[in-house]
Every structure is written in C-alpha cells, then in structure tokens.
C-alpha cells in the first residue's frame, strides 16, 4: 500500500498548482488584453487571479482541501458565467 502525501507535501503541491494556474491566467490576460481590451476581460481574469491567490493562502494555512475546492468550484463558476454572458473568445 502506497502512503499518501504528508501535510507539508500536500501544501506544497497545492501552492505550486495554484501558482502555475495563476501564471497561466496572467499570461492569458495579457494576450486577451492585446486583442480585445475590455472591462469584462479584466473582471473575469481578475476574479480568476483572486481565486488563485486565495487558494495559495488557504494552502499555506493547511486548508488544502478547501483550497482545491475554491480553485475547482471557482473556475467552474467563472467559466459558466463567461459562457452565459457570451464572452467573445470564451474560455479562461
């Protein structure tokens, strides 16, 4: 039987995952602003960056499952909101 991650390893994994997603969102925001600058673009991507930062802070404090839920549910809500508003080019 393979043992799971230690709490410290789980925190590091979630922090690295959240940081990687945050970097990807920042790059997508920069590319998106170059092609279609709008307040809606900044709003959606700003919320995504805030979710990533929240997940990083939750992970630092040992709330790794909550951090994963924030990232997953938050991005699902953002993507569905983007889809419902008919955001041009869609997809964070």
3D structure, described in words:
This protein is mostly helical and 92 residues long. It has one domain (7-84). Helices cover 78% and strands 0% of the residues. The protein contains 3 helices and no strands. Helix 2 (39-60) packs antiparallel against helix 3. The N and C termini lie far apart (38 Å). The model has no long low-confidence stretch (mean pLDDT 85). Keywords: Membrane, Transmembrane, Transmembrane helix.
Global geometry = elongated
% residues in beta strands: under 5%
Major sheet description: none
- Average the pLDDT over all residues and give the rounded result: 85
pLDDT < 50 runs, ≥5 residues: none
Q: H/E order of the elements?
A: HHH
